[in-house]
Known about the structure:
Elements: E1 3-8, E2 11-15, E3 20-24, E4 32-35, H1 38-49, H2 57-66, H3 70-83
Antiparallel strand pairs: 1-2, 2-3, 3-4
Amino acid sequence: MAKVVDVIHEYKILKTKRDFVVINTRGNNCNHSHFLHERAARNLIDIVLRKQIPKSMYFQEAAKRIILDESYEEKIILNQRKSKKERYVNNCR
Length: 93
């Protein structure tokens, strides 16, 4: 059983046995994300409410999962495409 820790606007933070789950109550079952720490879950909700683009790839994926705004999701996807770097491979070896 999950225990409700907090409700912030349309987002709900649940405490499970292993982790914390952020759920968008306006969405369906797929609009949720898992975190090990409550502070990280709260940070994600704060970032999403301000419509900022998260810096870490994990937070970007989590934000894409819980949001319903398609224009905000497109901004995150564009940022993910820009941030992917090509790996340097030394061909001389």
